[in-house]
Amino acid sequence: MLMFLNSLNRIWLTFAFALVFCCQPPAWAQLKLNNPSSKPINPPSTGSGTGLANPVVNAISTPRDFIVAVVNSVPITNHDVSTRLELQRAQAAQQGRAILKSDVTLREALEKLITEKALLQNAKDSGIVIDDEALDLAEQRQAAQNQTTVEAMRAKTLASGSSVEKARKDLHDQLLLQRLVERNVPGRIRITDVEIDNTIKSRDKASVSTAAEMELGHIFISVPENSSDARIAELRAKAQSALERVQRGGNFGAIAKEVSQGPEKENNGLMGVRPADRYPSLFVDAVAPLRIGDVAPLVQSGAGFHILKLVSKRNVTNATITETRARHILLRPGGQLSQTTARAQLATYKTQIESGRADFAQLAQQHSQDASAPGGGDLGWVAPGMFVPEFEEVMNKLQPGQIADPLVSRFGVHLVQVLARREAPITERELRDLVRNSLREKKYDETYQLWAQEVRGRAYIEYRDPPI
Fold first, then answer.
1. According to the model, what pLDDT value does residue 410 have?
2. Residues 307 and 343 in one domain
3. Which of 16, 97, 335, 383 is such that its CA lies 20 to 30 A from the CA of 118?
4. Is 7 among the domain residues?
5. Are both 331 and 309 inside the same structural domain?
């Protein structure tokens, strides 16, 4: 199923945080503090360390390659740092930024690698396992994001002088980091009611206000004009008797039909959902302290006696949210259906629909492998954050009536069309949920970095010669 409760879905972004996280690199004059002597030392015993006596740690593969740091028992070589720096240079070039192969940048690349190694070892110590099926699926998704096939991606890897095994190992490490972060970071984020209130207040300056909507149950005992005191007392006793029956658990609707003289008696005494300012202020004040389902003490007005039950209540705002109505056709690769074939098949459907030779809803009913298929793939009206990010990102770029190229999500391959968009009012509770999610997003990076620094701080780190 496509939908999920927000919040927090960073399955394919987490590794990027691992790459960008970097503690402030210390001056190289200070790096030897962890190893004041020039002789190799053994790290303190940990769940993952085996000591620096491990021959792998002290191996040097080429005359120019050498160990620059050790994280627990895992070495980081000069070649590792150079490779990471080249990756940073390539990423910067793609973003139009210049990056120089300076000494400072080499140290930053090393610091990032140290943090990454500490996190990977923590993931393994935590018992996180990535099976072959998950790795294969991630490789397929990676290929789809690059608009190519797994076979073509592997061929490009070989042509670059690397190996498929190393590429899969790197992808395996990405998945380890992703799952480790998913286990540890979201639960550390704390959003207080005060933070939410302050954010909403700041939005109030932009004319966001709230008001109550409610529905009341009403039993009315009329008191005619010029009634004697004795008659008023008699009618009061009648109303009080009805109130006590309701308080003892009697059926409010049945009692309303039996004794009420109000126009809503045939609707079980229900007055309908309406803004609070459309109820008499006497009624609003009477039910103000009530919880939903409670009944107020007997209320007297100039017209008679009233028994009031708070049936429902919610706060609404004048804020709106953009809702989208979309439909899709989902194909799930597996068995004889490869991801490449699924993409090609959906591309054919798109061409047929856009040329008028096929109907989207009929194709969805015939071919979609989603629960929405009987309804022509219609996903209904949804608010932001209700779909997985890879689906929603594409959907949000479409204009009503437009169909996207086939896209890949964790559920399979989709052909998605936006039918319409609208601005819908949201309740105060929905507004608070949106604000809470927004604040969580803002705090995510900071929380991740603090947690990663804690993990790094528990690792044994020995700095050797600086990278060159």
1. 80
2. no
3. 97
4. no
5. no
The answer as to whether 196 is a domain residue is no
- Residue 118: both structure tokens together: 């500490």
3-state SS record for the chain = CCECCCCCCCCCCHHHHHHHCCCCCCCCCCHHHHCCCCCCCCCCCCCCCCCCCCCCCCCCCCCCCCEEEEECCEEEEHHHHHHHHHHHHHHHHHCCCCCCCCHHHHHHHHHHHHHHHHHHHHHHHCCCCCCHHHHHHHHHHHHHHCCCCHHHHHHHHHHCCCCHHHHHHHHHHHHHHHHHHHHHCHHHCCCCHHHHHHHHHHHHCCCCCEEEEEEEEEEEEECCCCCCHHHHHHHHHHHHHHHHHHHCCCCHHHHHHHHCCCCCHHHCCECCCEEHHHCCHHHHHHHCCCCCCCECCCEECCCEEEEEEEEEEEEEEEEEEEEEEEEEEEECCECCECHHHHHHHHHHHHHHHHCCCCCHHHHHHHHCCCCCHHHCCEEEEECCCCECHHHHHHHHCCCCCCECCCEEECCEEEEEEEEEEEEEEEEHHHHHHHHHHHHHHHHHHHHHHHHHHHHHHHCCEEECCCCC
φ, ψ of residue 224 in degrees (nearest 5): -60, 155
Question: Which CATH number is 409's domain given?
Answer: 3.10.50.40
Same domain, 53 and 184: yes
Query: For 408-428, what is each residue's pLDDT tens digit?
Result: 888 889 999 999 999 887 777
Task: Tell me the C-alpha distance between 387 and 418, whole Å.
Answer: 13
Q: Examine the domain organization and report whether 62 and 141 are in the same domain.
A: yes
Residue 430, amino acid = E
Q: How many Å is the Cα radius of gyration of the chain?
A: 33
Last residue of a domain, one of 278, 297, 318: 318
Q: Are strands 378-382 and 407-409 parallel, antiparallel or unpaired?
A: unpaired
Residue 105, domain extent: 14-188+448-463
The domain spanning residue 458 has which CATH number? Answer: 1.10.4030.10
Indicate if 334 and 452 belong to the same structural domain: no
Would residue 439 count as lying in a domain?
A: no
Is residue 124 located within the same domain as residue 140?
yes
Is residue 1 a part of any domain in this protein?
no
Mean pLDDT, the chain, rounded, equals: 80
* Residues lower than pLDDT 70 in the chain: 1-64, 91-104, 145-147, 203-211, 315-319, 335
Same domain for 344 and 312: no
